[in-house]
Write a structure and sequence with these properties.
It contains twelve helices and 13 strands. It is an alpha/beta fold. A six-stranded mixed β-sheet has the order 4-3-5-12-6-13. Strands 9-8-10-7-11 form a five-stranded mixed β-sheet. Strands 1-2 form a two-stranded antiparallel sheet. Strand 1 and strand 2 form a beta hairpin.
Length: 339
């Protein structure tokens, strides 16, 4: 029964809104001025138009409502019963519209129970989520974070609001690490931090030279693990090597950095990844971090969102918090900025 009532209400609202289609809503504001002033001349002054324009508007209102609305009385124009009946509801409706247009929903982090949804690489989750949650505990104890897997269509998920923010590593020349997760040109992006690439291998790896480095020959002959959320496509290193007419062998592709580290610690595979991974890898005494034997471009980590949420107060607050936490993650981090 409740569902039937709700359906009937929606149908009634749709019918009511349908009756307004084709109606110039400026006429309603003009009617309010005429009803308030009781004079075409005075209503024109209130509306900031000429008397001729207001007279024309009154004619249109009379045609629209099939009623004279204002008629001559003793010393002034008086409202007809139809106009009197319309005056209160229309003024209330105009007031509601004005408030809806001029009022922005506020956001109080200290009392909010909003949940923000994130997607991104697990390395960012490991490094950023602990300090982010500590800040939430201090500033917004009711706010929660939901970490989701990368969707099939990231721009569509961001536009729909299914995801609030996506964390995306990109090269400083704006080329994505993984083209299959490229956020797209219609999204907003803000740089969070910058980083360089390092090679991670197990201690005692046969490809490490006596001076604790890896030659390009050893690098290209070694088997590699590639972190690829999509599981397909070339990695950054492969594109750089291809430009130098050489290649490497990818022995395994995994979606997460944590999995890649576990593999490297127990095999002779090489992992080339952001240097920030060292903050996680230091717990593994068996791992060594090396300068790559091929020049790799620096990269940036950015947060991405849909512009329809740019002015949302809660979204603005959360983006600012993520930017602040990201800027404090490591000494080499550059404070976030618009890009």
């Amino acid at each position: 029964m409740n569902q039937m009532n709700a359906t009937a209400t929606i149908m009634n609202v749709d019918h009511d809104l349908g009756s307004l289609r084709g109606v110039d809503l400026n006429l309603l504001a003009a009617f309010d001025a005429l009803a308030e002033a009781g004079s075409v001349t005075r209503a024109a002054e209130l509306a900031g138009v000429t008397q001729s324009a207001m007279s024309h508007t009154l004619r249109r209102l009379r045609e629209l409502l099939d009623d004279p609305l204002l008629v001559r009385g003793h010393g002034r124009m008086v409202l007809t019963p139809r106009a009197e009946a319309l005056r209160g509801p229309l003024r209330a409706a105009l007031g509601d519209m004005a408030r809806a247009i001029t009022t922005r929903p506020d956001f109080d982090a200290s009392t909010s129970t909003r949940a923000f949804r994130l997607v991104g690489p697990d390395l960012f989750d490991v490094l950023a989520l602990p300090p982010l949650l500590r800040r939430l505990g201090q500033e917004a104890p009711g706010v929660s974070v939901v970490v989701l897997p990368m969707p099939a269509n990231l721009p569509a998920s961001l536009e729909a609001g299914d995801i609030d923010l996506a964390i995306s590593p990109v090269q400083l020349n704006e080329e994505p690490f993984d083209r299959r997760t490229e956020p797209g040109p219609d999204l907003q992006r803000r740089t969070l931090l910058r980083d360089k690439m390092r090679c991670f291998v197990r201690r005692g790896h046969p490809g490490i030279a006596a001076r604790g480095r890896m030659t390009l020959t050893a690098f290209t002959k070694a088997a590699h693990v590639l972190v690829s959320p999509s599981g397909a496509g070339q990695g950054l290193v492969d594109r750089v090597l291809a430009a130098q007419n050489t290649t490497r062998r990818i022995a395994v592709r995994v979606p997460q950095f944590s999995t890649a580290l576990a593999i490297v610690a127990e095999t002779d595979l090489v992992l080339t990844a952001p240097s920030a991974l060292g903050a996680v890898a230091t717990a593994e005494a068996a791992l060594v971090s090396l300068t790559p034997p091929v020049k790799l471009p620096e990269h940036a980590v950015a947060m991405v969102w849909h512009p329809r949420f740019s002015e949302d107060r809660g979204h603005q607050w959360f983006r600012g918090l993520v930017a602040t936490v990201s800027g404090e993650m490591s000494p080499g981090t550059v404070r976030s900025r618009q890009s």
